Amino acid sequence: MIASSYNAKDEDGHITVSGPGGGTLRSKKPENTAFKQQRLPAWQPILTAGTVLPAFFIIGLLFIPIGIGLFVTSNNIKEFENFNWNSTRPCTCSIPFYLDQPYESNVYVYYGLSNFYQNHRRYVKSRDDSQLNGDITSLKNPSKECEPYAYHENKPIAPCGAIANSMFNDTLELFYNDPNGTKIPIPLNTTGIAWWTDKHVKFGNPGGNNPNLTAAFQGTTKPVNWRRPVYELDADEGNNGFINEDFIVHCSSVGGSALFHAVPTFNQSNPDYPVRSFEGRKRVILSTISWMGGKNPFLGIAYITVGSVCFFLG
């Protein structure tokens, strides 16, 4: 018969169990301290009409002017949606348009795709972040998440995945039609549209600062729907390959059925991107921006609505 003795210590919550072997076992009961027994000092507000109604009133006084400021700022952003176009075959076309007001600050060019969903689970996962970061091993051996766009003709695809394969590839250019009939090309910056952390941290070319991207991507092939390989996206070495800002912006998936991304080039030429298969439409938007980003009145309206409700309840 085995005998055991228990020695309980209420002051610290320890229980020692001893047996004939002389060994001791420590109980799993938490120590009798304020932290482990959840007896730390705490403040629990008592909600009464005298405290709740003034709180609603103060929230209303804060939210309404903030909402008005956001709404006015959004309305001051100038935006011009140029045109919609669809083409069943590659072509070159020119569509004239007129701006009825001056755009003093920096003007950004966006392309828009309607009925284009980027939030499907398999689509969002269809990329290899290690490959996009310049990892040599992932460059030659793409992730299985990229299937069926991981290999083509027994060569690894760079960049792999459905996101890269669906990159917008229409060529857009912008001209000013002088009154004397001369068409003056308007130069557009090809950089400055991607986040700094994306270009310098998340994305990187294989081989680091190796200027010979053709050699760095040797043994790989371009995505199926691309017209040229990734190392020919731009003549500028600082904006070519995986660090091409147009490509980086495209890889930033958005939710909903409408896609808007900034593009470095604009007046339409070579509308190759197919949209008939998903009944989509393409359009171009010219817009200025503010400290809060692009034109979006929803945030201001939301603040005004919440503030007004709280004000009247207070």
Lateral arrangement of strands in the main beta sheet: 4-13-5-11
Rg calculated over all Cα atoms: 30 Å
Question: Strand tally, please?
Answer: 13
What is the N-to-C order of secondary-structure elements (H for helix, E for strand)? EEEHEEHHHEEHEEEHHHEEEH
| Distance linking N and C termini | 74 Å
Tell me about this structure.
This protein has 314 residues and is of the alpha+beta class. It has three domains: 1-29, no CATH class; 50-77 and 294-314; 79-288. It is 25% helix and 17% strand. It has nine helices and 13 strands. The strands form five sheets. A four-stranded antiparallel beta sheet has the order 4-13-5-11. Strand 6 (151-152) and strand 7 form a beta hairpin. It is flat and about 75 Å long. It is found in: Apical cell membrane; Cytoplasmic vesicle, Secretory vesicle membrane; Golgi apparatus; Membrane. It holds the Pfam family CDC50. Belongs to the CDC50/LEM3 family. This is Cell cycle control protein 50A. It comes from Etheostoma spectabile.
Summarize the structure.
The chain is α+β, with helices and mostly antiparallel strands and 314 residues long. The protein is built from 9 helices and 13 strands.
Helices, strands, pairings?
Blueprint: E1 5-9, E2 14-18, E3 24-26, H1 49-75, E4 79-85, E5 108-114, H2 121-125, H3 129-132, H4 136-140, E6 151-152, E7 155-156, H5 162-165, E8 171-172, E9 175-177, E10 183-185, H6 196-202, H7 213-216, H8 245-250, E11 258-262, E12 268-269, E13 282-287, H9 298-313
Helix pairs in contact: 1-9
Keywords:
314 residues; alpha+beta; 3 domains; 9 helices; flat
